[in-house]
Amino acid sequence: MHSTTQSNAFAERFVLSIKSECLDRMVLFGEGHLRTAVREYVAHYQAERPHQGLENELIDRVESGELGAPSDAPVERRERLGGMLSFYHRQAA
After folding, report:
1. Do 89 and 69 touch, CB atoms closer than 8 A?
2. What are the Cα distances from residue 12, in Å, to 69, 75, 83, 89?
3. Are residues 21 and 41 in contact, defined by beta-carbon separation less than 8 angstroms?
4. Does the pLDDT value for residue 78 go beyond 80?
5. Cα(38)–Cα(49) distance, rounded to whole angstroms?
6. How far apart are CA 6 and CA 90, in angstroms?
7. How far apart are CA 2 and CA 5, in angstroms?
8. Were both Cys, which of 6, 14, 72, 74 would link to 2 (CB 3.0–4.6 Å)?
9. Percent of the chain scored above 70 by pLDDT?
10. pLDDT higher at 18 or 1
11. Amino acid 4: pLDDT
């Protein structure tokens, strides 16, 4: 169980990440646009963004115990928010 201080540190780090990697780069046109940007960033953060604290693994991969694709598999690019957020991955065999 995380203490309040640890939880605050995680929340502060997430807010810093979403601001610097996403929101500070956008001109938002209303609440709906903001909600879409946040939803897309959270999906990217959970499933596509490597995390240093997890040895550069993805949160979803660590939680599921999923293994990566073979190192000689072709690299593909996925993008979100018109290419502002990109994720490079190896195609599964």
Report:
1. yes
2. 32, 32, 25, 28
3. yes
4. yes
5. 14
6. 33
7. 8
8. 6
9. 86
10. 18
11. 77
2-16 average pLDDT score: 82
Residue 31 and residue 23: Cα distance in Å, rounded?
Answer: 13
Q: State phi, psi for 76 to the nearest 5 degrees.
A: -120, 155
Residue reference for tokens 């979100």: 80
**First and final C-alpha spacing in the chain:** 37
| DSSP line for 56-85 | TB-HHHHHHTPPPPPTTSPEEEEEEGGGTE
pLDDT band at 7 (very low <50, low <70, confident <90, very high): confident
> What is the Cα–Cα distance from 27 to 24, expressed in whole angstroms?
8
The residue extents of the domains of the chain are 4-90
15: helix, coil or strand?
Answer: helix
Report pLDDT digits (tens) over 15-48. Answer: 999 999 999 999 999 999 999 999 999 999 888 8
